[in-house]
Design a protein that fits this description.
It is a single chain. By secondary structure, the protein is an alpha+beta fold. It has eleven helices and 17 strands. The strands form three sheets. A six-stranded mixed β-sheet has the order 5-4-14-13-17-12, covered by helices on one side. A six-stranded mixed β-sheet has the order 7-11-8-9-15-16, with helices on one face. The chain has a five-stranded mixed β-sheet with strand order 1-6-2-3-10. α8 links the parallel β8 and β9. α2 packs antiparallel against α3. The longest helix is centred in the middle third of the chain and has 21 residues. The protein is globular and about 65 Å long. About 5% of the residues have low confidence.
Length: about 400
């Protein structure tokens, strides 16, 4: 006879419970005190870290029904209690074709559709439908780019501009005592504060005493270079001061130009700072690489050197929960690499079990940031790079690049 479940080792049960959906874990808690304790431990662990999922509308039948059922099912599996939700949307975010009767070719309809009716259907956007599924008081940020990046079971997913079906990649960020994500929008007709000093930046982003900035994602909508470049110059000055004191106390910065930003305020947003802020004593680690090769033939050389540096940084560990952001130029997809999901799969091959989210944009912002967390020395691994022309030592507004940010939330 097999071993009774009640005699299984706690570590074995924890391993089994880690694969169960949340609703099944709740049922397991009712079996006995031991299972209740172990299932609760798994739930607490899950609720401490960000969670992601990707959705794409694939067929033309019962679209609205499929969307409702799929989103409802996916949201049930959100383990954490989110403090912020972020959605990266692809360009076909209009749902004129979500319902069967909206395409004007309904065979059951013996009269022509009016333009007015079609216009009403176009107002049904993906973000509007998602909002209806989420709690009203949950902060929501919607970013519409030229495409989206996500992951599912160690496989990269890149849905580009030629995809005619709506899709999104989502990130749910929980309440956590060691770190938090904050976003700061800047609206049109609103002047951007002059962020000339560390104190200016900390005050603007809401950094409290005994906290520090670890990662800054800049999302830009219709922001002219004349205003963006001075902002990046100020951020570079602040980073330089931090790096001279201790490179590990500085921050990574990524971002890009997108089609639309929506923070559900009803105002038109021109710039968003999405910021990871952690406690000073926290073990949160961040490294970032910028991939831009002089020619396509040199991609492997640039990729291998940058990825090896990220590995040496000591950010990634199979024992820790990790999150990654990918910001890529809209020209770096399957037409460039002659293969779908190329760069996201390459990244996940090197860093398995990492949750990956991101977008394709129309211009990128990035910098190489690779402190050596493996030692106590104030060491920046980019100093070891042989080909200095591959390096982005300062935050730059650039093009035809891919930027990967790896974040580790250590237990």
């Amino acid at each position: 006879m097999g071993t009774p479940f009640k005699n299984l080792d706690d570590l074995v049960l924890l391993r089994i419970f880690s694969f169960l959906p949340s609703k099944h874990l709740h049922r397991s808690m009712r079996v006995c005190k031991k299972w209740n304790h172990l299932a609760n431990e798994v739930m607490r662990n899950r609720q401490s870290y960000p969670q992601t999922f990707v959705y794409q509308l694939k067929d033309n039948r019962d679209k609205m029904k499929n969307f409702d059922e799929k989103i409802h099912s996916d949201l049930e599996e959100i383990w954490c209690k989110p403090a912020l939700s972020v959605f990266f949307l692809n360009s076909p975010a209009f749902f004129e074709s979500l319902s069967e009767s909206s395409n004007g070719n309904d065979q059951n309809c013996d009269y022509p559709k009016s333009k007015r009716l079609k216009t009403e259907h176009k107002k049904d956007t993906m973000s509007k439908l998602i909002k209806n599924k989420l709690a009203l008081n949950l902060p929501k940020l919607f970013i519409t780019g030229d495409g989206i990046v996500g992951s599912d079971k160690n496989s990269g997913i890149e849905i580009e501009s030629d995809c005619e079906q709506p899709a999104f990649s989502s990130l749910f960020i929980p309440h956590n005592g060691s770190y938090r994500f904050e976003y700061k929008p800047v609206y049109f007709k609103t002047k951007l504060p002059e962020l000339k000093t560390e104190q200016d930046l900390d005050k603007f982003l809401g950094v409290k005493q005994n906290e520090e900035i670890k990662f800054l994602l800049l999302l830009v909508d219709g922001y002219s270079d004349s205003k963006l470049i001075p902002l990046l110059n100020n951020l570079n000055r602040i980073r330089k001061i931090k790096i001279e004191r201790d490179v590990k106390k500085s921050f990574a910065c990524s971002g890009g130009i997108v089609k639309k930003l929506d923070d559900c305020s009803g105002k038109r947003t021109k710039l968003v700072f999405l910021c990871l802020i952690s406690k000073v004593e926290s073990k949160c680690k961040v490294s970032q690489i910028v991939i831009r090769e002089p020619t396509q033939q040199e991609f492997d050389t640039v990729w291998d050197e940058k990825i090896n540096l990220m590995k040496k940084s000591g950010v990634f560990s199979n024992k820790d929960k990790c999150l990654a952001f990918q910001v890529s130029c809209c020209g770096r997809g399957k037409d460039y690499h002659r293969q779908e999901n190329f760069e996201s799969n390459m990244f996940l091959k090197e860093f398995p079990n990492v949750s990956l989210v991101g977008f394709f944009g129309y211009g990128e912002v990035g910098v190489d940031y690779i402190p050596d967390y493996g030692t106590d020395a104030n060491k920046n691994l980019i100093d070891d790079v042989k080909n200095k022309e591959y390096l982005f030592e300062n935050i730059q507004a650039t093009g035809f690049t891919s930027i990967f940010t790896l974040i580790s939330f250590q237990n």
